[in-house]
């Protein structure tokens, strides 16, 4: 059995005070939740205080990005080592917004995933196609390249610290959601590719999340798909009641 993961990516929202308030609102809404791993990803400036606020609760904390070197003359960067030090258990890597706006490539994703795993943290590695790529029937080619290059040099043992998040770029923040069948089809492809890459046992254990306008209204149908193991949630994670509604999809 793969334990579902519901992760909230807060993107560039929430001051420290707002982040603490959101977590304090969320905690009682999920304190009786079982069988689901709950993760929130605040901005860098809020990580330390959010870590203190989630301590002793069922909520884990992720960063939204990292740099692959542990330390050095890299002004403005934050390493997995430092993120672990502040209380992170996860790091989101390769989100489409990082690829689109900040020059993230499959090579830098690969370096970051390796560094995250080496630091003992869990990498939430994002893959996904644009609308143009889907309309050109290139979805599987794009996903395969992102997986192959992003996971280069990693072995089966590393995959205990890797989660893949499929986020069709055309569904992020647009209100459009891939149909249950569309999402399942890509998740099946991802698991099949990982099976070829590292073997069946690791592929079956791999958690694959869906992201792209996930809401309380559509999470249950998505989670009924056999290869969807959770969600990477954007806008709906910014309010405690809507995020809790997604976390408690099985209630």
TrEMBL record:
<keyword id="KW-0963">Cytoplasm</keyword>
<dbReference type="InterPro" id="IPR035990">
    <property type="entry name" value="TIM_sf"/>
</dbReference>
<keyword id="KW-0324">Glycolysis</keyword>
<feature type="active site" description="Electrophile">
    <location>
        <position position="95"/>
    </location>
</feature>
<dbReference type="InterPro" id="IPR000652">
    <property type="entry name" value="Triosephosphate_isomerase"/>
</dbReference>
<dbReference type="Pfam" id="PF00121">
    <property type="entry name" value="TIM"/>
</dbReference>
<feature type="binding site">
    <location>
        <position position="213"/>
    </location>
    <ligand>
        <name>substrate</name>
    </ligand>
</feature>
<comment type="subunit">
    <text>Homodimer.</text>
</comment>
<comment type="pathway">
    <text>Carbohydrate degradation; glycolysis; D-glyceraldehyde 3-phosphate from glycerone phosphate: step 1/1.</text>
</comment>
<dbReference type="InterPro" id="IPR013785">
    <property type="entry name" value="Aldolase_TIM"/>
</dbReference>
<keyword id="KW-0413">Isomerase</keyword>
<feature type="binding site">
    <location>
        <begin position="234"/>
        <end position="235"/>
    </location>
    <ligand>
        <name>substrate</name>
    </ligand>
</feature>
<comment type="similarity">
    <text>Belongs to the triosephosphate isomerase family.</text>
</comment>
<comment type="pathway">
    <text>Carbohydrate biosynthesis; gluconeogenesis.</text>
</comment>
<keyword id="KW-0312">Gluconeogenesis</keyword>
<dbReference type="GO" id="GO:0004807">
    <property type="term" value="F:triose-phosphate isomerase activity"/>
</dbReference>
<dbReference type="InterPro" id="IPR022896">
    <property type="entry name" value="TrioseP_Isoase_bac/euk"/>
</dbReference>
<feature type="binding site">
    <location>
        <begin position="9"/>
        <end position="11"/>
    </location>
    <ligand>
        <name>substrate</name>
    </ligand>
</feature>
<dbReference type="InterPro" id="IPR020861">
    <property type="entry name" value="Triosephosphate_isomerase_AS"/>
</dbReference>
<feature type="binding site">
    <location>
        <position position="173"/>
    </location>
    <ligand>
        <name>substrate</name>
    </ligand>
</feature>
<protein>
    <recommendedName>
        <fullName>Triosephosphate isomerase</fullName>
        <ecNumber>5.3.1.1</ecNumber>
    </recommendedName>
</protein>
<feature type="active site" description="Proton acceptor">
    <location>
        <position position="167"/>
    </location>
</feature>
<comment type="function">
    <text>Involved in the gluconeogenesis. Catalyzes stereospecifically the conversion of dihydroxyacetone phosphate (DHAP) to D-glyceraldehyde-3-phosphate (G3P).</text>
</comment>
